[in-house]
Fold this sequence. Notes:
The chain is mostly helical. It is 52% helix and 3% strand.
Amino acid sequence: MGRRGPLPKPSERVAGHRAREPGRVLELLPAAVQAPDPPPGLTDQVLVSWESYWASDVAAAASEVDLPLIRRLFVMYDQYAQAIEVVNKAIVVKGSTGQIRVNPLADYAFKLAGQILRLEEELGLTPLARQRLGIAVAERYRSLDELNRSLTTHEQGDGEDGDDVDPRIALA
């Protein structure tokens, strides 16, 4: 399960005397992720979602150990779609004694929706979860951009101060 609570402050805004643990950094993986075989029996609509997921940037953060969780999520998507289809046709049904009651599949769909949301958050499929993943990615890209700029500036050289300091030394 993920960390709870607010996101940590950026290191430049941290105040206090305690030593801070370094923030977790999201390792960037190759952009092209090969879509594994989907779980058997998924509807066409969910198969399209499966392919869409594996074509997204979020899938690049998934590893092979996440595959059972991802498959379970898409099976739940399929079950939810089928349950909602039946509920939409008959929101109420007759009970065992002839009374009118809410379709039991509506309760099942409601429970599935909660489980789906939890898995989506774990896998970075909600806007907030993507934002939390994106913060680490954006900071890493920013630092890489700064390094590239400093290397470009050094290679061009301004020639005024004659300083030939290797920018990689500043990183050490």
